[in-house]
Please model this.
Amino acid sequence: AQTVTQSQPEMSVQEAETVTLSCTYDTSESDYYLFWYKQPPSRQMILVIRQEAYKQQNATENRFSVNFQKAAKSFSLKISDSQLGDAAMYFCAYDEIQGAQKLVFGQGTRLTINP
Amino acid sequence: KAGVTQTPRYLIKTRGQQVTLSCSPISGHRSVSWYQQTPGQGLQFLFEYFSETQRNKGNFPGRFSGRQFSNSRSEMNVSTLELGDSALYLCASSLLSGSTEAFFGQGTRLTVV
Model:
């Protein structure tokens, strides 16, 4: 079974600085999707960024970028120019390419932004 | 375009009762999946429905069931509630089954007393 591990329960960063959240996963599949979701206090999960495993290029969405290391099964999220609105729980997630949607989530990292 | 709507937002039930939660997906989306979020177990997949058919089911007891209607709206039911069923239940919709992007609702907070 696939597993996703986030080793940092909590992280904090100064506003305008850069922070990196770590995620490792385990799968025997060669093609799959990886995601970072953000869950603010409103509880609604919001997709931050998505990476397709067969694409070697790291995904980027504005201030958010990933470092995808397929051989190491590592998928870290870098947030540049951190803003107060970035404070939230961040979840790394895995999904297979084929078949029904079934996201496998990590335990989450609580990110605090210090003004 | 309206997002994913879950009702009710909050629910308090007594142990042994049953409960039904509702999820209306984004218009045009045919896949609805359900997740349970607890502090101890984190986010766990319950099941996914596509075109009124359950496509996948997580590792939950038979007390947890669901269905999907022809308009893609979905309900999940938990019978014989236990204290451990207290959780945030999240629904996600996507255009197609196995689609790459899932849009989540704000969840239903269920408390079992």
In short: The radius of gyration of chain A is 14 Å. The interface with chain B takes residues 33, 37, 42-47, 50, 52, 91, 95-108 of chain A (CB under 8 Å).
